[in-house]
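User: I'm writing a tutorial on reading structure tokens. Could you give me a worked example: one chain, its sequence, then its tokens, then a sentence or two explaining what the tokens reveal?
Assistant: Sure. Here is the example chain.
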Amino acid sequence: MSPANETDFSNLPLRQIPGNYGLPFIGAIKDRLDYYYNQGPNEFFKTRVDKYKSTIFRTNMPPGPFMAPNPKVVAVLDAVSFPILFDTSKVEKRNILDGTYMPSTKLFGGYRVCAFLDPSEPTHAAAKQFALSFVASRHNSVIPIFRSCMSDLLRELEDDVDSGKVPENNFNTHSDKMSFDFVVRFFSDEDIPSKQTNLGSDGSKLFDKWLLFQLSPLMTLGKKFIPNFIEDLLLHTFMLPPILVKSDYQKLYDQFYSSAKRVLDDGERLGLSREEACHNHIFVAGFNSYGGMKILFPSLIKWVGLAGEDLHRRLADEIRTIVKSENGVSFSALEKMNLTKSVVYEALRIEPPVPFQYATAKEDIMIHSHDGRFEIKKGEIIFGYQPFATKDPKIFVNPEEFVGDRFMGDEGEKLLKYVYWSNGRETEEPTAGNKQCAGKNLVVLLSRLMLVDFFLRYDTFTVDVSTILLGPAVKLKTLTKSTWR
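And here are its predicted structure tokens:
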């Protein structure tokens, strides 16, 4: 399918943006209750798209009162309007990473770390280059460190299955531990196993608690025994006090300050203070990396597991054939695994690990959907719900279906520009001057490596899936070991 021309849309009709914000205060509360409890996110947006006959409309976005002074947004929910959120010549990304609220800077040592900076701010280029340079400097360490961590993960999963007593959400539990181990080892000067740090087995819990204090306004616990109005009051009305996580964050700070000395030296050379560099390093390690893996890895295994044995057989054949011909797992081997790459892109498309994007219009700007043009005024907040944009039926055939080979071949590769998970197009690269994720290519690489190690070791596997907080909960039920070597 082909969308309306993305550069020449002057023939589309000019329309007023439909929708409204309701009565002051009351409208925002009503939309919040609809979003979390009465409808849920997908139904919340679907009913409004159907009502307004438009993928661009006005609404309130949570959390609203009393946490966010201005909950009013213009929602963009299709593949051709969504990229306005990446155009920093027209939109500002200041203090809007998480949405219409800003977490307390006390959670980041008093600093506004790079993710909350707009590229026009003086510190942004140095902070972003610091992250980019670090990722590049660890290029040769990625594969051996991650595969070592994956070996531990797979062994623990096998122990669960072999025991016949598989705990609920066992993949998430072991994956979180593996992700933390990887982050500690990768983000340090040397390959230091997490068990040799002062954080021990509680390290992932420190990150989890810190993430909760940032993202609680976007969560619902889904606990039937907690009345909705109590949860709404606790999570969505007032920010959780940063003082309650101060000591946990200090432990993380002390760990990275001592284990990443050469990394922080580089931050100082780029113009950051050592303290600011460390807080930025923790954010990239804990929020961008560990937080992203916490959602992405269960999602990847969920979709591949549900896809069934035919896809598993094809993945195993490709991975084993190339690993044998290349004499091991290397960057060149991974690059030749076209189906494996496509499966990772498809997982990122169908369930993006970060579902929201926000920006503020710097000027009056004209945007368009497939069938209309709309004017957004300077100062208005633009909100994008990514799962709708990356499942746009005018771009993707059978968009709600997981199609492992969707991005293979010339036609499949053309669709990659509509995969937006990284705060940018998959066909673009992060730079010091944009807001695309500094670890974009690292995330794709780690996801491929996870599939490689799974299918070097197993022929197939089955999963049970449910939902927790911001992502899927995955239980590995069976693992069929391979005799291939």
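What the tokens reveal: Residues 274-307 form the longest helix (34 residues). The CA atoms of residues 275 and 309 lie 50 Å apart.
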